[in-house]
Write a structure and sequence with these properties.
This protein starts with 5 loop residues before the first strand and ends in a 9-residue tail after the last strand. It is about 0% helix and about 50% strand. It has about 280 residues and is mostly beta strands. A hairpin with a 5-residue loop joins strand 6 and strand 7. The strands form six sheets. The chain has a four-stranded antiparallel β-sheet, with helices on one face.
């Protein structure tokens, strides 16, 4: 069991949606409405200010950055002239959109809350949205309980998503046109509340669990091999660094939008792990 992390960056509102790319960690400071980067040495830069709450990040095959606009329920792409709307998800998402993963062919999978989380609404299931290259949207997998962090396996054949309030990781087979089929339990996490996830080279998942204030390494079937207890409450994680053996853990003391901007308790914490990442976002 690990318990110690090092602090790489502080003073953030609510860091989320990390991706390792171009020798730096990309992430959103969600409630501050910023897209940020930080190097392994702690050199931080605000890359972009957004009008809406920024959710998931991803890149098209031509290296165009995509960002989810959470409350608008849309995806924007970054061009030389700024952000331009890429896809309108408002007719398909039942509440705020959140995390996103982009496949190597440019297809993007986007989750949404399914209910008004911060207003205390009853938990309701929802469906994932598949966004084709060019922005055309369609529904795919259904009956998901707060689909959150997600990954695509390196062979491109399996999609795994964290269902936060169902306390589980669910896998799907990706067919030739990108649709998701054959839902199956990848791991029952019992009390953990899986939020952000990332994959390592042995096929295990690192899972940020804010409800239990830990980051856990989980094998398919549910065996937990490692627990890390960061200083703050962890909401997301990503493997990166020169050797992909640095686990970046994004933490904060609250996910409440009003309190997050007042407290500025968000941090990027780091820990060294034994098994590297896959080389994918």
């Amino acid at each position: 069991m690990h318990s110690k992390t090092n602090i790489l960056l502080t003073g953030l509102a609510f860091p989320e949606s990390p991706r390792w790319r171009d020798d730096r960690l990309w992430f959103t400071d969600q409630h501050a409405r910023k897209i940020m980067t930080v190097t392994s040495e702690g050199e931080a830069e605000c890359m972009l200010q957004t009008q809406d709450l920024p959710g998931g990040l991803g890149w098209l095959p031509d290296a165009t950055l995509l960002v989810v606009a959470m409350t608008e329920r849309a995806i924007y792409r970054l061009t030389e002239s700024g952000l331009e709307r890429y896809a309108d998800l408002s007719a398909l998402a039942s509440f705020h959109c959140n995390d996103m993963v982009v496949a190597s062919n440019g297809q993007a999978y986007v989750g949404n809350f399914g209910f008004d989380l911060h207003a205390g609404a009853a938990i309701a299931s929802t469906r994932l949205i598949l966004v084709e290259p060019g922005g055309l949207c369609r529904l795919t997998a259904s009956d998901l309980v707060f689909p959150n962090g997600s990954i695509i396996t390196p062979d491109g054949l399996t999609y795994i998503v964290a269902e936060t309030f169902a306390h589980r990781l669910t896998a799907f087979t990706i067919d030739d046109n990108g649709s998701l089929h054959v839902p199956r339990l990848w791991a029952d996490l019992e009390q953990a509340t899986p939020d952000g996830i990332c994959l390592d080279a042995e096929g295990a998942l690192w899972v940020a669990s804010p409800g239990t204030r830990e980051v856990i390494r989980v094998q398919q079937g549910g065996a937990i091999t490692t627990r890390i207890h960061p200083l703050g409450t962890p909401y997301a994680c990503m493997l990166g660094g020169q050797d992909r053996q640095t686990l970046f853990i994004l933490t904060a003391e609250t996910d409440d939008p009003r309190q997050a901007n007042r407290l500025r308790s968000g941090r990027v914490e780091i820990a060294t792990v034994n098994v590297p990442g896959t080389g994918l976002p």
